[in-house]
Design goal:
With 174 residues, the chain is α/β, with parallel strands linked by helices. It has a single domain (2-164), classed as Rossmann fold (3-Layer(aba) Sandwich). It has helices at 12-19, 85-96, 120-127, 130-136, 154-161, 164-173, and strands at 2-5, 36-42, 49-55, 72-78, 105-111, 141-145. A 6-stranded mixed beta sheet has the order 2-3-1-4-5-6, with helices on both faces. A hairpin with a 6-residue loop joins strand 2 (36-42) and strand 3 (49-55). The longest helix has 12 residues, at 85-96. The radius of gyration is 15 Å and the shape is globular. Residues 12-13, 33, 54, 56 line the site of magnesium ion. One of its GO terms (molecular function) is GTPase activity. Keywords: GTP-binding, Magnesium, Metal-binding, Nucleotide-binding. GTP binds at residues 6-13, 57. InterPro entries: P-loop_NTPase, Small_GTPase_ARF/SAR.
Length: 174
């Protein structure tokens, strides 16, 4: 199972809608995810699909209930809102140090890149102390930049989600 987590308003729902091939434009509105929402995401070759769950930011204290059987975590951060970064860092660190998540693969998804200026990616990673964090934790963390609004970077994220090697390992575990 792949799960999509991240702080409040970081852009999870719009990104999940984009991954689920829903129509998205400037007028698309999202509701706060107060619970858990499941999305069906089609593989790039269109041959199969998987289900991905989004847990809303408001329920961060209860994320743990949804983590058994999770092989991949997409952790979504709003790259255009650096004020939120420290909260995001605390949530991410809590997940990375959780003993039951040591074998999980992480994608750190910098969302809303259409709103961010170029340098913001580096600033976001700096504020997360990402270089240091990566040395301290066992998990592989792939950094991906996306905009759910424009669709930029979404193909790369799909490649990560449907990476054949990790999917194979995941099916062995089940
Ligand atoms: N410009 C821009 N705005 C975005 C993008 N993704 C999300 N937003 C906006 O950011 C706000 C929050 O987006 P959501 O996707 O609902 O955020 P969320 O992470 O699901 O929030 P919770 O479910 O409350 O945790 C909405 O107003 C979205 O339209 C993006 O890629 N670009
Ligand atoms: Mg949501």
């Amino acid at each position: 199972m792949t799960i999509c987590l991240g702080p409040l308003d970081s852009g999870k729902t719009l990104l999940m809608k984009r991954l689920a091939d829903e129509e998205i434009d400037e007028a698309t509105v999202t509701e706060k995810t107060l619970n858990v929402e499941t999305y069906r995401v089609l593989s790039p070759n269109g041959k199969f699909d998987i289900l991905i769950r989004e847990c809303g930011g408001t329920m961060a204290p209860r994320w743990k209930e949804y983590l058994p059987n999770v092989q991949k975590i997409m952790f979504v951060i709003d790259a255009s809102n650096l004020c939120q970064i420290s909260a995001a860092g605390v949530l991410l660190y809590t997940l990375l140090t959780d003993p039951s998540l040591q074998k999980v693969r992480f994608a750190l998804v910098l969302a809303k890149m259409d709103w961010s200026y170029r340098q913001m990616r580096n600033e976001a990673l700096l504020m997360l102390q990402f270089t240091r964090l990566k040395k301290e934790v066992k998990q592989e963390i792939q950094v991906l930049e996306v905009s759910a609004l424009t669709g930029d970077g979404v193909d790369k994220l799909k490649e990560w989600i449907f990476d054949p090697v990790t999917l194979e390992n995941a099916s062995k575990h089940n």
